[in-house]
Specification:
Beta Polymerase, domain 2, 2 domains, 10 helices, globular
Length: 242
């Protein structure tokens, strides 16, 4: 089902039949404000005969264009490159593959159906030790950014989201969907911090509480499977892709 936020996804006519566009960023996780950008990730099937077409549009899948009332940002991956990053446990791409927030109109054909089939094929195998490491790594990176560049509402809100995601993953062994009803309370706090309704001190205290929980759960990471089954599933998909 297309996502209700069907804003202008700009793809050249030659590329559109071979690509599926997904909503990502703050709108995908429910932390958007009236001035938030719309972020999209475009996945295209990288068949050899398409290489020339995609080289013809070097900026088509990595662009920032003005939308109506907000910026729109697009980035894109060839499906094989997306699969490589997914196998490494990339948290943002795992959320994309698990939640499938498709935007805009897309033509159902061999390429686009294959992309969607890839997502549903790998979805059962996304919860890995590497994915846990990605959430924890994101959190460490945000902390570094806050230390070196300062604590801002946006950075602190992002830290809360990643901490909530890490706790959920460690406890539930499922890919977190921050936009879902399961995260209503946590999302409300993160959004309140982002918009200034809650103070930075309140947000920092909430983050400290969450990190205490993570510290207590961290040992569970060793009980998670590694990515071997995910890698085997990805390899098998591409072997049988025709």
């Amino acid at each position: 089902m297309p996502h209700p936020l069907e804003v202008g996804v700009l793809l050249p006519a030659e590329l559109a039949p071979h690509a599926v566009t997904y909503l990502t960023g703050s709108h995908a996780c429910g932390l958007n404000t009236p001035v938030s950008d719309f972020d999209y990730t475009v996945i295209y099937l990288d068949r050899p005969d398409l290489k020339r077409v995609f080289r013809k549009y070097p900026d088509a899948l990595h662009s920032k264009v003005k939308g109506t009332g907000a910026d729109e940002s697009q980035k894109g991956y060839a499906l094989k490159r997306f699969a490589q990053l997914l196998a490494k446990g990339d948290a943002n791409l795992a959320e994309l593959a698990d939640h499938l927030r498709v935007v805009g109109g897309w033509e159902q054909n061999h390429d686009t159906v294959a992309i969607q089939r890839f997502m549903t094929t790998v979805s059962p195998f996304l919860v890995t030790r590497e994915l846990v490491g990605s959430y924890l790594g994101h959190l460490t990176g945000i902390h570094h950014e806050m230390r070196t560049k300062g604590v801002t509402p946006k950075r602190l809100s992002h830290a809360l989201r990643m901490a909530d995601g890490a706790i959920f993953l460690l406890e539930q062994r499922r890919v977190p969907d921050y936009r879902s009803a399961e995260f209503a309370e946590q999302r409300a706090l993160a959004l309140a911090v982002k918009t200034g309704v809650q103070t930075l001190a309140d947000g920092a205290a909430a983050l400290a509480d969450r990190e205490g929980v993570i510290q207590a759960l961290k040992g569970q990471r060793d009980n998670f499977p590694d990515n071997h089954e995910l890698v085997d599933t990805i390899n098998d998909f591409f072997v049988h892709l025709s």
